[in-house]
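Field log, afternoon session.

UNIT: design team B
ACTIVITY: writing a sequence onto a fixed backbone
BACKBONE:
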């Protein structure tokens, strides 16, 4: 959990440990650089990221929080789509240095949440707390009914994140394999690309499964081994 030990503990855990270093920006280099600057305290007070699934929004938000705490700052990641969260949980979060609000699109048309986020904006601005926001679409397409909140969402730079290209995904596979201690041949990477979901999260998850199978079988990640992992045979 990322947060200040004396503050409200939210029921949120980071499933993996994403870092800015292992985010492959591809066409999103400018957005990635802006997030890095915000994480270390030298960037914009408000950043807004939007894009479709598998464009790295959640990775960037969680990684920014980890990077921020890594330089002695406080940060909190808040996935607004998480079941069980209540608007009151946003109170006092402005005492952090960085807040990462994910899934903002889920609050559109919900007056209690819209007001809570609006009030958080105002408190964060007054306290110097940076806001990193992510949603599936731009501010004008969220269905936000509160005009003042729509205005706040326009305050900072907005970046539309794009999916990685096939070459970028292939490079990602090879880099992840290397970090896991494996050597992944280009033809094996291309086989994965042709037979599996191509979003980065799925590719990383698959490489973790391949690594486990490779260790158990004491085999390098060849196409036959990868085929067995994909089929669930090992």
């Amino acid at each position: 959990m990322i947060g200040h030990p004396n503050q409200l503990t939210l029921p949120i855990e980071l499933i993996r440990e994403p870092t800015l270093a292992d985010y492959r920006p591809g066409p999103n280099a400018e957005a990635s650089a802006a997030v890095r600057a915000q994480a270390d305290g030298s960037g914009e007070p408000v950043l807004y990221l939007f894009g479709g699934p598998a464009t790295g929004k959640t990775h960037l938000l969680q990684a920014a929080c980890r990077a921020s705490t890594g330089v002695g700052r406080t940060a909190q990641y808040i996935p607004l789509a998480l079941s069980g969260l209540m608007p009151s949980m946003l109170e006092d979060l402005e005492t952090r240095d960085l807040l990462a609000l994910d899934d903002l699109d889920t609050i559109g048309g919900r007056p209690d949440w819209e007001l809570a986020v609006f009030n958080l904006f105002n408190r964060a601005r007054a306290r110097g707390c940076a806001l990193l926001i992510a949603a599936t679409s731009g501010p004008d397409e969220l269905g936000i009914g509160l005009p003042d909140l729509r205005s706040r969402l326009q305050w900072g730079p907005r970046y539309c994140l794009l999916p990685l290209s096939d070459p970028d995904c292939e490079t990602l596979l090879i880099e992840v394999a290397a970090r896991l201690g494996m050597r992944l041949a280009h033809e094996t990477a291309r086989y994965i690309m042709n037979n599996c979901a191509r979003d980065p999260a799925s590719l990383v998850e698959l490489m973790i499964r391949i690594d486990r199978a490779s260790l158990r079988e004491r085999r390098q990640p060849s196409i036959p081994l990868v085929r067995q992992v994909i089929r669930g045979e090992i």
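LOG NOTE: The first helix runs from residue 29 to 39.
NEXT ACTIVITY: expression trials, pending approval
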